[in-house]
Amino acid sequence: WLNVIGWQALLASGAYLCATMIQGLVILNYPDYPAERWHGTFILWAVIVVAVIVNTVIVSLLPKLECVILIIHVLGFFAVMIPLVYMAPHASAKDVFTLFVNAGGWQTTGLSFFVGIYGNVFSFLVSVLLNGTLGFAMLLAVLFCSGDVSAESIIETPTGYPFIAIFVQATQSVGGSTGMAIIIVALGICATIAFLASASRMTWAFARDHGLPFWRYLAKVEPRSSIPLISILVTVTISCLLALINIGSATAFNGVISLTISGLYSSYLLAAGLLLYRRCTGSITIPTTYEANPKIVTEGETVSGQGVINLTWGPFRFPGPLGIVINVVG
């Protein structure tokens, strides 16, 4: 349940970020534009419509599209990094690593630090090897090229996103900054497409295991395209309804979609905690041989005489104290 709820909120939060970034770019290019929250909600719905079209109408192209997204992701990293590092004034290493700014009104600088790092850790969690490496490199580049991070032009930028103000400060060009930011918006929309694919299939898989109300309908697969169409529509409906909260209060909406981090982290904590418990109590046995086609235990079948399915390790594991340490850190 926690995982399913987290993925439902993740779709809404991804589309919301894309929508507000688009609004920020409009404000950058047209300073007289009167930004309204309901504008952002409509843009959010438009982003979700794009994700629905890709996941339903042209779903056969989704694997190829993901390959294209990976290429854009890597090339876009250099397209943003190179002009930013080359053109922006650079801060000193002392300012980057020792200066902390509490511009959010939190009680202490330490609390401000941990609140700010929460979302960054989540973004690194998506893919440690590629996104973690590129993300850390971009983080350092932005910190060194941000200039005076306490400046009002960056913190209180009318675009709502300080990175857009940093781009403008570096390039001294609205057009150039818009081009750099469009790369990020495009990748955000592509991520939203992937969020819908994952959230809908997570819902479908849980319904298939009878874990959700109306599971008979949610577990159905459209026979012609082999996609969980009903789960996709339910996921989209939930995100569109959540977006209505933004019209009344952006703070309330952000509070609701914070379920993304809380739900996903809690589900990971439960899985890692149960694995740690089983490991420490010796409840997971080491098989003597690994069969190529292990017997599938169906409903009503048991392995042990007490009616409990015995757990065994797979062909790869970290043995002994090292595995326990990795579980605790995880």
Main features:
2 strands, 69% helix, two-stranded parallel sheet, 330 residues, mainly alpha
The order of strands across the largest sheet is 1-2
Strand content: under 5%
Oligomeric state of this protein = single chain
- How many helical stretches? 14
Q: Helix amount, in percent? A: 55-70%
* Class by alpha and beta content: mainly alpha
How would you spell out the order of helices and strands?
Answer: HHHHHHHHHHHHHEEH
**Major sheet summary line:** 2 strands, parallel
DSSP strand tally = 2
The coarse overall form would be globular
Average pLDDT, all residues: 80
Q: What Rg, in angstroms, do the CA atoms define?
A: 23 Å
Q: Distance between the terminal alpha carbons, to the nearest Å? A: 21 Å
What does this structure look like?
By secondary structure, the chain is mostly helical. 69% of the residues lie in helices and 1% in strands. The protein contains 14 helices and two strands, in the order αααααααααααααββα. It has helices at 2-29, 37-56, 62-87, 93-98, 109-126, 130-145, 152-155, 162-171, 174-208, 215-218, 229-248, 250-257, 259-281, 320-329; strands spanning 284-285, 311-312. Strands 1-2 form a two-stranded parallel sheet. The longest helix has 35 residues, at 174-208. The protein is globular. The two termini are 21 Å apart. The relative contact order is 0.14.
Give a summary of the structure in a few sentences.
Helix content is 69%, strand content 1%. It has 330 residues and is mostly helical.
Helices and strands, with pairings:
Blueprint: H1 2-29, H2 37-56, H3 62-87, H4 93-98, H5 109-126, H6 130-145, H7 152-155, H8 162-171, H9 174-208, H10 215-218, H11 229-248, H12 250-257, H13 259-281, E1 284-285, E2 311-312, H14 320-329
Parallel strand pairs: 1-2
Helix pairs in contact: 1-2, 1-9, 1-11, 1-13, 2-9, 2-11, 3-6, 3-9, 5-6, 8-9, 9-11, 11-12, 13-14
